[in-house]
Design goal:
2 copies of one chain form a homodimer. The first copy, chain A, is of the alpha/beta class and 342 residues long. Chain A has 14 helices and 10 strands.
Amino acid sequence: MRPDPAGVDSDAHADAHADSHANADADADADAVDAAAVQQAAARIAGHVRRTPLWRLRGAELGLGCAEVWLKLEHLQRGGSFKARGMFNALLARPAPPAGVLIASGGNAGIAAATAAQALGLACEVYVPTLTGAAKRAALAALGARVVVGGADYAQALAACTERQQGSGALMLHAYDQPDVVAGAGTLALEIEADSGTGLPDRLLASVGGGGLVAGLAAWVAGRGRVEALEPPGAPTLHAARAAGRPVDVGVSGLAADALGARRIGRIAWPICRRWVAASHLVPEPAIRAAQQQLWQVLRLAVEPAAALPLAALAAGVVVPAAHERVALVLCGANFDPSTLA
Amino acid sequence: MRPDPAGVDSDAHADAHADSHANADADADADAVDAAAVQQAAARIAGHVRRTPLWRLRGAELGLGCAEVWLKLEHLQRGGSFKARGMFNALLARPAPPAGVLIASGGNAGIAAATAAQALGLACEVYVPTLTGAAKRAALAALGARVVVGGADYAQALAACTERQQGSGALMLHAYDQPDVVAGAGTLALEIEADSGTGLPDRLLASVGGGGLVAGLAAWVAGRGRVEALEPPGAPTLHAARAAGRPVDVGVSGLAADALGARRIGRIAWPICRRWVAASHLVPEPAIRAAQQQLWQVLRLAVEPAAALPLAALAAGVVVPAAHERVALVLCGANFDPSTLA
């Protein structure tokens, strides 16, 4: 693993270190994340998360050859990313722990956990590495979270968080590798199907960090449409797992590493992806940056780099839909500095 | 009139100088902008403009006491503002002029006119004052427009544009004071009614520059719901007209002057507003800025100051809906520098 600061600050490094807090058998957990679990999650989180708009555009509007592009504007979600769905689902799925909630994350998952805990009146502690900047710490504190600097890097923060959890009675959340978190993310696909007016799209594209998002989508779609996974070359967890036939560690670097910089595909996500995700693609960094700019300049959508991978894959010809296709893109987050668009 | 650079660069200064290009009787023109005209406009521009999302949120999501807030995300429109609706309607309402299109504007109307002309294969000349910056000129040129510096200020640019129009056969567009432009803006209210699932909102709030937007909305609603007009204190065209009982010149200054800095309410808009707009309010500048920041920080919507007046009016208590009310807010544009949000 390269010692990349952006990567070390990521939500998604937990996987290689998180064995201690999730003892159930991963395949059994993955089996538990099916369409019924997604439907339960949707009922649970309704009224707690925002039903974000689904915007249908002609493909030509974005210079694309497919009939339609459906944009799920999930970057408008509470806490600025799709992660709120999983965090609310995890906290609402069981009686509220009096000792509150713990999570190790300096990124979107930490913000989402703090947002959900605050809304539900639960105490929340977020363990961050020293690398997490003052602005992010202040944002977490503004959400009512106690911010604890757990060590020099993410692994140390996670270890400190895990140690704190022992015997505390607090609920420790994982950024993506828990069944409730994956099922919560899957509610995005349920909403796309319900809100389009014409059912599922022909193809559904989403970014992959630890794989919680794409696994949730795939669990809902379950072969009724094509779900495809997109990764930056600097953090190709699913791509590498598919090549190796099993989850393997990857390096973490690049433009979208702060949101997609997982070290390894999730244990919950992997069997779901193996079964239901039709393809995984690497999207070149310059295409990601160009798509982020295009989303602002052409559509006035301000999104973080991780949210631009689906459009980047289409614009760069990495994914080439047929002329008749309706392709849905999940815009997954907007926790970034908007001055980078100017 | 104060010599305010932002104001001088505005779309909306045309009113006091535009008598030469619209010879029809204004009251007769205003009568022509009714619900039927809006419906015709909607049919005409369908497929040319984007059907922007209507996003229904609980009022509590934005800290407001009303039941629901409906956000019409019109800042995602082609060209980054609602102006595209009126410009496409004006160009599609009659046979395309072989000599092309002229407009005087360094702002949203110029961008919208260039966007519509390019899409329809028409030549477009945009007359700007020398004050219009290089970035805006480049943006217009990138849309295929010929940019002509018409003089030191807006009045001179308008005069140069008007002179050029004489005998040229070209169609001169006005930023807001033409019946087709007002009817085009009215299609926003038609879409809100059609897309909400429950008809019109209890209250519909929109910003006023020259009044084309609010007049179009009011022509569609026609008393079936409350339409209220919001203005910055630095450019209170409708407020001043209501106080005087007739259109009067106002000064132009302030945060939103580049989009709302009209010198006088439009001749088409005035009689429609007098009849159908229930109230007009001034919204303090600090509340406008705070609402723009809130839209980014809480909802991740990046909008220009002019688009923040409706939320500002609610947040500052300038407009106080009842607890049961569903209030629709038009977010009218996003042509601004996003680094101002950071």
